[in-house]
Specification:
alpha+beta; seven-stranded antiparallel sheet; four-stranded antiparallel sheet; 5 helices; 45% strand; globular; disordered C terminus
Amino acid sequence: MRTEDRVPSRLSVSAEEYRHAISRLPTAVAVITSAGPVGCTANAVMSLSLDPPSVLLSLATTSRTLAHIRSEGCFAVNVLSWSDRRLVAQFAAGTPAERFADVPWYPVDGVPVLTEASVAMVCTVRETVQLLDHTLIAGTVTWARADDTPTTVLFAKQQYAVGPGTTGDVR
């Protein structure tokens, strides 16, 4: 069969079809923080380069956290462990003060790092690119800490999980 024969005649995908398909791609859940302190939940974070060590993340262009990242020029990626899954919902809504309520953190070069994050990386902004309704942020990692824990929170099929067969409610 030729590739052309497998291409559907319809060349557009609805938001629902896309959401269903992309939800099958598991992603780690992180809290992105910047000076303020401000922060938000994100699952669009990936490794970009080893030389120099860099990450790429995507935030809604309307994000308050993005505005602070742009003005401060730095941010932290805080990868959540299963024991801190409540922070997924906490950093997804509310004011900056509500998001940081009862969350221990410490500053690294002025950027809030969540004490309980299983992985934390502080980055300086290298470049930003607006695409559609999101902005991609390339950041050079200037500081990193990682705990050897297998309990990173994953998001797939619109559920949170820690590994195969283990899912849970983040509330």
